[in-house]
Amino acid sequence: MMSRMIFQLTMLAIAVASSSRAWAQSTERDTRAPQPPRGHAEAPKDAYIPVPPEERMTRPGARPARGGYVSVQVNVDDAGNNIVGDAANEPSIAVDLTDSNRMAIGWRQFDTIDSDFRQAGWGYTTDGGRTWTFPGVIEPGVFRSDPVLDADTLGNFYFNSLSRDDGGYWCTVFKSTDGGASWDDGTYAYGGDKQWMTIDRTDGIGQNNIYAYWTQYWSNCYPGHFTRSYDGGQTFVDCTELLGNPHWGTMAVGPDGELYVVGDGFVVAKSSTLQDETLPPQWDFATTVNLGGSLAGWAGPNPGGLLGQVWIAVDHSDGPTHANVYLLSSVDPPGADPHDVMFARSADGGLTWSDPVRVNDDPAGNDAWQWFGTMSVAPGGRIDVAWNDTRNDPGGYDSELYYAFSDDAGETWSLNEALSPPFDPHVGWPQQDKLGDYYDMVSEDSVVHVAYAATFNGEQDVYYLRIDKCFGDLDGDGDVDLSDLSQLLAHYGMTSGAEYEDGDLDGDGDVDLSDLSALLAVYGTTCP
Q1: Dihedral, 454, 298, 243, 144 alpha carbons, nearest 10
Q2: How remote is the C-alpha of 211 from its chain's centroid?
Q3: Sorting pLDDT into bands at 50, 70 and 90, what band is 68?
Q4: How many Å apart are CA 124 and CA 182, to the nearest integer?
Q5: What is the CA radius of gyration of the chain?
Q6: Reduced to 3 DSSP states, what percent helix, strand and coil does the chain have, rounded to the nearest 5?
Q7: Are 229 and 237 in contact (CB under 8 A)?
Q8: Can you tell me the distance from the alpha carbon of 144 to that of 88, in angstroms, rounded to the nearest whole number?
Q9: Ramachandran angles phi, psi of 337, nearest 5°
Q10: Shortest CA distance to 111 belongs to which of 83, 86, 138, 144?
Q11: Mean of per-residue pLDDT scores for the chain
Q12: CA 85 to CA 111: how far, in whole Å?
């Protein structure tokens, strides 16, 4: 209790000092105070209502499947059952890339939908996502929101969590050295709403640096709104300003340790020197990208929140697309179509950008919402994208999780594929009218890991979906044979049809293993 009181007094002092600095600098510069971004900040309206484990009602949870893909619920009890009456959304995923059977997902946990009070919920797996353990929440009874998870090169996980009291906002970064099974007491990391975090996993001087930024308006160290850790999250340095003032976005580290930050307005800032703690914090430039629309929210399928945030990623492959920078977001495009997933590419380190490309392949202007678009890039350069899509519910909001990928740096995209059954995003609201503000994903060459929220149980829950990219022995009999071809054809719904009649994909008159190779080549799912 005493340490908590000291922490709050320290936070209050920081807030007062920050306000004083902000007033002084505003006076010196003769500028107006910054205006708040659209929407609302994370703050509890309702009191915490504890729900003891012995009082929880449970029932078998949904195990939604679509086209061979099975979504696994993460926020379950010890028996794998759904907990009735709670809510979970805004998932963020960390994968131990030294052993990808170990993963953790964090989310906003509402113990009861009768209160909007949320906590830092998390689950972990040691078997590649087939089963999940939900131990509870970090710091029960403490308001926490906007979870962001990442992993370092050593397999440690980090959980950046936003909190708020009368003294303002602050962020705490918790560390797990056991695959997300437990977390330390956390480290103060300055902060504000809405924060994001990324970790340098290159082999350079910045390896395992942790970077975090948030919206300047709600910063507890205004005008600064960016910090970093050079010692594995033990301490975070004094916050500094971020060129271009982005917010509601993400960060990515390039193959040479360069840092990219993006936010609303599609402002991209880059620093080549922040990886070196001996140098003063500097930014190379900030530029604005045309992404074919604008970031939007508070409408349609998610009336109380964003319809997606901006994602940035960098290609770490060794081929011709090495160091390409990619930008993706669900945007409100010109015209009647309410929302599309749009993509742009930079081949010169973020200085110039391609024209925007539409990733979703439904007919333009069909009033479908493509929302919560998220992106990740595999080590070999494949770009993976997932999003919610209402194309099969004309005039409505029932959504399905969709997926597409590109093997040519975003020049062209695969046929869009539905990965989940439809769900109604307007049920299970925990005293706020939204399903959160974002999803998350991590790509490996052989598999894509997706964390998303949906309402298959009639309430908001968090799910894990595995997309295997290396096909071969699909039936598990130890051989790659015609039965695997049959399974793959069935997976893509192509057991018959003019183009793939009877599975003779190469047109040689026989259905044989060459047809399996042809189908794998069509879908880009072969792996080295």
Answers
A1: -50
A2: 16
A3: confident
A4: 9
A5: 23
A6: 10, 35, 55
A7: yes
A8: 13
A9: -65, 125
A10: 86
A11: 88
A12: 8
The answer to whether the beta carbons of residues 443 and 461 sit under 8 Å apart is no
User: Angle at CA 356, nearest 5°, toward 354 and 357?
Assistant: 115
**Phi, psi angle pair for 11, to nearest 5°:** -65, -40
Rounded CA gap, 164 and 44, in Å?
8
User: How many Å apart are CA 129 and CA 465, to the nearest integer?
Assistant: 8
3-class secondary structure per residue, 203-245? CCCCCCCEEEECCHHHCCCCCCCEEEECCCCCCCCCCECCCCC
Please tell me the distance from the alpha carbon of residue 524 to that of residue 204, in angstroms, as a whole number: 32
Lowest mean pLDDT among 6-10, 101-105, 136-140: 6-10
Note the pTM of the prediction, 2 decimals: 0.86
Coil vs helix vs strand at 253: strand
In the chain, the domains with their CATH numbers are 53-468 (2.120.10.10), 482-523 (no CATH)
CA angle 40, 44, 50 (to 5 degrees): 150
Looking at residue 436, its amino acid is: G
Q: Which residues of 356-385 are buried (b: 16+ CB within 10 A; e: fewer)?
A: bbbbbebeeeeebbbbbbbbbbbebbbbbb
Q: 4: how many CB neighbours lie within 10 A of its CB?
A: 10
d(CA 189, CA 167): 15
CA-CA distance, 240 to 283, in Å (whole number)?
11
**What's the Cα-to-Cα distance from 43 to each of 59, 133, 159, 255, rounded to whole Å?**
31, 28, 19, 37
Per-residue pLDDT tens for 425-437? 999 999 999 999 9
Q: How many whole angstroms separate alpha carbon 49 and alpha carbon 57?
A: 16
Report the alpha-carbon distance of residue 275 to residue 256 in Å, rounded.
Answer: 9
For 174-194, write each residue's pLDDT tens digit: 999 999 999 999 999 999 999
Q: Is the peptide bond before 194 cis (omega within 30 degrees of 0)?
A: yes
Which CB contacts under 8 angstroms, 24+ apart, belong to 397-401? 397/300, 397/301, 397/369, 397/424, 397/425, 397/426, 398/422, 398/423, 398/424, 398/425, 399/301, 399/369, 399/371, 399/423, 399/424, 399/425, 399/454, 400/66, 401/71, 401/450, 401/452, 401/454, 401/465
Question: Tokens in use for 344?
Answer: 């742009």
Strand extents, DSSP E, 340-399: 340-346, 357-358, 370-377, 383-389
pLDDT (tens digit, 9 = 90+) per residue, 456-502?
Answer: 999 999 999 999 887 555 555 655 566 666 666 665 555 444 344 45
